[in-house]
Amino acid sequence: MCGIIGCTGVENAGEVLVSGLRTLEYRGYDSAGIAYFDKEKGLSVQKAAGKIRALEEKLSALGEIKASSGIGHTRWATHGAPTDANSHPHGSARVQLVHNGIIENYAELRAELLGLGYVFSSETDTEVAALLLDRLLDAYASKREAIVALTGRLTGSYALGILFADEPDTVYAVRRGSPLMLGVGEGKSFLTSDLTAILTHTRDYLVLEEGEIAVLRDGGVLVMKEDGTPIERPLKRADWDARAVRLEGHAHFMHKEIFEEPTAIVSTLRPRVAGGLPDFSPDGVDAERLRRAERIVFIACGTAYHASLLARRMIEREARIPVECEIASEFRYRDPILSERDVVVCVSQSGETADTLAALRLAKERGAYVVSIVNVVGSSVARESDAVIYTHAGPEIAVASTKAYTVQTAILSLFAVWLARLVGKCSEARARELTEALTVGLPGAVREILAREEEIKALTAPLSDVSYLFYIGRCADADIAAEASLKLKEITYLHSEAYAAGELKHGTISLIEQGTPVIALSTEAELREKMIANVKEVAARGARVTAFAAGGETAHLAEVSDDLFVLPELDASVAPIAAVTVLQMFAYHAAVLRGCDVDQPRNLAKSVTVE
Ligand code: M6R
């Protein structure tokens, strides 16, 4: 939540900061702002409520910005409404800073500063940190010491980019909890919440660790310990390229990212297949620990949680190991029972979700072996896990997660096959069949689905003027219904509920009336007859049924539904994954039909780094 950027040694800091903020806008879009060293006017600040467009308009009225360094911020509001005054940067005539995270003890610090005569111009927790730093500048001989003293006073999470008025063309950075990367180009240096924002300038980076301070100066980066000792750390090279963060002809990132799914599946699965069978040992996963697992506990949030639900189905079916799926924000407050016989799997696209990270730490404390499935290399979840299995989906920019879900479910299915082999529950022939279905069948089926976009789009017509709908399915189809419903709600603002089809008659069916859209999912062919009965129950009460089916005989389902979309032929264990691509596309076109802001739905942020 919130994105920060900083640069030194560039030709036009205004442009560099704003274009970086455009890439980071998915992290929050309530307001944006920059601070920079204007070669004539000194430390200058510009900010505006609303999307980055509003800031750009403000900047274009100012004419050319003559600056080679600065900091920038895009906000997801936590403390205070999305107003100009609450926009970052915050500070004084001596210091300006941008912040990603939450200062938990801000009220107490604010009271202290008010007592010292400080005047606040915003309601934010960030301004408290900025003014406290201003105060500490008087008490310490160096900027470094003042920053260390500041971090000693703050509780909560933060990544800070800091400019001091008396030290032009220098940017300081420090972090705890929130992510912060440092980029190094030719004569230029950067700080960013997410590498994607600086990929057009450099792919060479390092991660700033907690307890370190970075100084960006003269186009280079100095990383030091709190006591000032320099730290030598080799640069890493990002394998994402700048095209990944451009629309490349698509109307929205969500659309582009759905179309990237076949490639993302292949890139993610291929490195984990050897001789036609799954092999996760190159990922450093301790096979012995898994073989001994009495239980697997998935921990995740949102879409990643839904990916876990589908993984549960696959692992229980193929490996016969008990699986539980936990919502991270609930898990840690339940005093969960965990032991070293448990394997915890944390699933996260960003690897920075605060709830997931907190749950991971608790699981480790209680002795569980933690494996994580993460898309962002070097992220906090990845670094704190015992083993990490990276998905190779490339950057996901749209707030609505699509390709990340698809690769998570694909890799977890392959993982299930590996597990099943480890515990001797799956024959080699079956393992080969499933591996082939995942690595060849699935991307092929997704390609076929993408070619049928117009057909999927036509199915959204009944959603143009309704206010709620249902997704129903059984077993794996109930799991994918949850994801399909979340996707639709998040980008269309249409209320939808995902329900286990057999459970509807125990109460919720009273909501079905003439014309209520019901999306019936039936990829579990062996449950087809049961599903047809459930469809008949809602149709008899006036529901307008759009069915999505895979495998087996579909003629009877067609008879009882208003529309039917039949998925390409695919192994039954894998078909639900492909069905989700259809449902993502369905949600996308429903959002376009309803005129919604597809990539930046209201109230949301891509990376939820607050609890
Ligand atoms: O980065 P993560 O996978 O940990 O994020 C978890 C959720 O915040 C995320 O999946 C969210 O639900 C998406 N916006 C859904 O599309």
Number of strands: 26
Low-confidence stretches are none
The percent of residues in helical segments reads: 25-40%
Give the integer mean of the pLDDT values.
95
Largest sheet: 8 strands, antiparallel
Per CATH, the superfamily of the largest domain is Aminohydrolase, N-terminal nucleophile (Ntn) domain
* SS content category: alpha/beta
Give an account of the 3D structure.
It is a single chain. The protein is an alpha/beta fold and 611 residues long. It is built from 19 helices and 26 strands. Strand 9 and strand 10 (188-192) form a beta hairpin. The radius of gyration is 25 Å and the shape is globular. It starts with a strand and ends in an 18-residue tail after the last helix. The mean pLDDT is 95.
Task: Please supply descriptive tags for the structure shown above.
eight-stranded antiparallel sheet, Glutamine Phosphoribosylpyrophosphate, subunit 1, domain 1, globular, binds 5-amino-5-deoxy-1-O-phosphono-D-mannitol, Rossmann fold, about 25% strand, alpha/beta, six-stranded antiparallel sheet, about 600 residues, single chain
Q: Could you give a short description of this structure?
A:
The protein is of the alpha/beta class and about 600 residues long. It contains 19 helices and 26 strands.
Structural topology:
Elements: E1 3-8, H1 13-24, E2 31-38, E3 42-49, H2 52-62, E4 70-75, E5 90-91, E6 95-103, H3 106-115, H4 125-139, H5 143-153, E7 156-164, E8 170-176, E9 181-185, E10 188-192, E11 204-207, E12 212-217, E13 220-225, E14 236-237, H6 253-259, H7 261-269, E15 273-274, E16 277-278, H8 287-291, E17 295-300, H9 302-319, E18 323-327, H10 328-331, E19 342-348, H11 354-365, E20 369-374, H12 380-384, E21 387-390, H13 403-422, H14 428-450, H15 453-458, E22 468-473, H16 476-492, E23 495-500, E24 517-522, H17 528-539, E25 544-549, H18 555-560, E26 563-566, H19 575-593
Parallel strand pairs: 17-18, 17-19, 19-20, 20-21, 22-23, 22-24, 24-25, 25-26
Antiparallel strand pairs: 1-4, 1-10, 2-3, 2-4, 5-6, 6-7, 7-8, 8-12, 9-10, 9-11, 11-14, 12-13, 15-16
Helix pairs in contact: 1-2, 3-4, 4-5, 7-13, 7-14, 9-13, 9-16, 13-14, 13-19, 14-19, 16-19
